[in-house]
Amino acid sequence: MGTTHQVSGGGGTAISVYECGNPDGQAIFLIHGFAQSCLSWKCQFDSALADEFRIVAMDLRGHGMSEKPQGLEHYSDGQCWSDDVEAVIGQLKLEKPVLAGWSYGGFVVSDYIKRNSDGAIGAINFVGAAGTIGTDDASRLIGPGIMDLVPGLMCEELAENIAATRQFILNCTIKPPSDEELEMTLAYNMMTPPRVRTWMFSREEHFGDALTGVTVPTLVTHGTLDTVVYPDMAEIFLGAIPGAQKSFYDGIGHAPFIEDPERFNRELGALARSVVTN
Fold first, then answer.
1. In this prediction, what percent of the chain has a pLDDT beyond 90?
2. 3-class DSSP state for residue 176?
């Protein structure tokens, strides 16, 4: 069993953070993607990682049990996302955490790095992560697994929104989830209101230049069959960050940490141990 904290994030936004694992271990800070929640990381919570490491996972603003402030400015300004990450690190006293950002979580990690550099963190894992949005590069690197569904995902009409959200969940993995997993995932996806989803997509960012100063160990994880964020997106991180390591998962889609948790947990654990030795 873990503990849920409430952190005061950017602009005073209440951010819900789940913590489990070894309180004395190296901190791993998990940051989920668009319309998801901390529950996305169940395969990490319920693994040997929790025996060794201190694991924290927040619900992004507008998601899960976190506050959902109304207004474009709460989601389009990268400072808000950066402040949320900084607040979790500071208020929970995370010592040199590994930041693992999945999908939209890649933006959130990049927002933090852009404004704070990497002095307070120990390592980074970009997981099926996006490094640009609202740009020409984004138009070719963000795939139909989400873009074909955008009208429904942003729709205020409930039945259409549920149908699009359900298909988005199915598009995230190559092997369909069990009925129980699909039910749970759909439930927490629907906690992100359509307006929040729309505001999150209103951004125009390209983080390549902002990441060139990263000095901590960085792992770029991506599934080769990802149609939500195409594998070529990984080149933004690999090209910008000196010494970044590449880990591509053959036959895997948008969620390697769910689709092959044994390999993912092994590689994340090795990355976390490298913080101690560097």
1. 99
2. coil
